[in-house]
Amino acid sequence: MLTKWLRPCGLLLAGLAAVFLTVAESRAANDDVILSEQMLPPETLFFLSVPDVPGLTESWDESAYGKLLAEPKLQPFLSDVKAKLAEGSEKLKAEIGVSLEDLKELLQGDFTIAVLEKPARKISGVVMFDVGEETETLDKLIEKMDEALQQQGADHSTQDIGDIEVHVYKLAGGDDNPIKTVAYFNEEGYFAIGTEVAALKSIIDRWDGDSDETLAKQATFAYIQKQCRSGEEEPVLKWYLNPIGAVQAGIGMVQGQNPQAGLVLGMLPILGLDHLKGFGGAVGAGDDNFDLVSKNFIYVDQPATGVLGVFNFPAVEQAPPAWVSETVASYSGFNWSVDEAYSAVETIVDQFQGPGALSRVLDGLADDDSGPQIHPKKDVIDQLTGVIHLVTDAQKVDGDTPPIPSMVVAAGLKDGPAYAKTLAKLAKMDGFPGMVRDVNGTTVYDISTNDTKMSLGVSGNMLLIGTDEAKFNEAVRGKASKPLSGSADYKAIAKHFPKKTSMIGFQRSEGQAKMLYETLRNRDNDEIEGIDLKKLPEWSVIAKYFQPSGSYAVPDKKGALFVGFALPPAE
Predict the structure, then answer these.
(1) pTM for the complete prediction?
(2) Same structural domain for residues 297 and 191?
(3) Whole-number Å distance between alpha carbons of 124 and 196
(4) Which regions in the chain score pLDDT beneath 50?
């Protein structure tokens, strides 16, 4: 029964995704525009918004991917794609009365998806968007939706909320249908549809954007969005999630039928998860320095305890070690507080098992005569400095076997020789599955499992683990012929890193993209439903559109900020 009403409602929203894949005329920003977060209530649990769809499509055109689609040598292939879109447009128009071109022009302002706790103990979904003067297309979609819903037995009525008329459909299906209502209003070229009348009322009550009780003024949301802004302009996309609020609302809905569900709420403080107040982020349009900038923020009440205490990454100066080659596909560096992570885990375990429980378990493992006489904390955990390096390369393909990821992980050690002795004890245990070899005076243990071989060893004050023997050996030797840190690509990214960071990242999109592109271009059947893949140009033609990108994280008094950015395409 649920699918019967989802389809007619989908008729209203069908094809809207195509708006983001096509070109719309740009329009000047209006300083008087009321943003959707100014109309949504503080009880909003999830929020995803494009404040200006035409502005987004303009930014897309200026991005590397927009310029890629404008590449002259790609046009013969894209002409086939456009022909297929035209066919789809005709089918769409026959079904719902509007074409893809009509839908492309429909969204003239913001487009927002939200989940609210309105009314209390009920979760309702809302989609809202500004069509400006494109009312003819919207009227056709509404008419089609109305016909489909009533044909399926929905009871239609209207009610006035303030000066706005709201259309309400009570859906057929009884208890089998978890959603009982669909309601919408269309006012001044602004359309909103939701699953609860109370949700729409909460929007109408804030219609002028002047209320003090809005999502925009909710403290967590406001702080997250402030940290994630890039410049003075509105982001092209922004989002927000209240995870604990969503859990509480969901449990509130089912607690009447299942009282034990309420026990989950009691666990949140014990695990420290009640300190997790929200996630959110924004994507900013590119400028002379970047193709785009993405910022995400985790809001955590301090001090972070319980599970959240495991994820403590203090800011320090970071750079790739000398053994990381400039040819790698990606590099990531982390500075993890191992001591605080262990303390957080110990506190959680001891809360459930009693004081000293985890310590007794670890001591028992160390004293077990049948084991290697290694203390998990003193010999393993306490030796870690928290410095971590992760290097990946393009995947290898060997015949018909699945792709083998090429990866090397290096973890900093306080006393490398002592850790090497610990590994040697493990290797002497009966049934140890590894083979021993020597690389540059370093003992290396190769462990094979199914189609993957993993190498393990200690070089200097680094524990090395790798799935690519050549890259692993390079790490053991400690020096690449051309280190990543000295490459022009890395320097172009690294100059945008703060001096001290919790995490840093360098990525080459070209490697993976090239592999996928060549796989598509060299398919045996060179045509897919009328699209001739042989019209795709050589990779060298489009390689310039895939530039390196970077990322970093820094701690904040309210949590942590994660920033990702891509360089503009090469001229």
Answers:
(1) 0.88
(2) no
(3) 6
(4) 1-31, 399-401
